[in-house]
Every structure is written in structure tokens, then in C-alpha cells.
Amino acid sequence: MNALLVVLTVLQVLAALFLIVVIVLQSGKKAGLSGAIAGGADTFLSRNKAKGVDAKLAKGTKWVALVFLLITFVMNLI
User: Fold this and answer.
1) Largest Cα–Cα distance in the chain?
2) 56 lies in a domain?
3) 61 in a domain, yes or no?
4) Nearest to 69 by CA among 18, 21, 4, 16
5) C-alpha–C-alpha distance, residues 51 and 43, integer Å
6) pTM of the model as a whole
């Protein structure tokens, strides 16, 4: 039982670190007038590429967060 707890703890730490990395890599939401002015310099292709990468990062964030929560729940039951 102790070995399982150690393995789950290591997996939880790795999931937490990966979750941090995925969240930091996401671009922030542009808001306000400064975002509208700065956003005018983007080209059509770069905006679509950014949306694709941001969409993949958002999906990755959801999956890693789900894994993190499941590991936490299992560790709580043990």
C-alpha cells in the first residue's frame, strides 16, 4: 500500500508540474482598448495558428487537470 501511495504521489507531482507548464504557455486574453490596438498588427494566418495552439493547450489543460483531480481523489480514498 505504501508503494502505491509513493507512485501516486510522484504521478500527482508530475501532473501538477505539467499543468503549470501548460497554463503558463497559454496566451492571455486580450481585453480593453490596448488589446484592440495591439491586435491590429496580427495577420490572419498568425491569428488562426494562435487559436489552434491555444485550443490544443486548453484541451491539454482540461485533460491534465482531470488526471490531477482523479489522482487526488484516489489518494484521498487510500
Assistant:
1) 58
2) yes
3) yes
4) 16
5) 12
6) 0.68
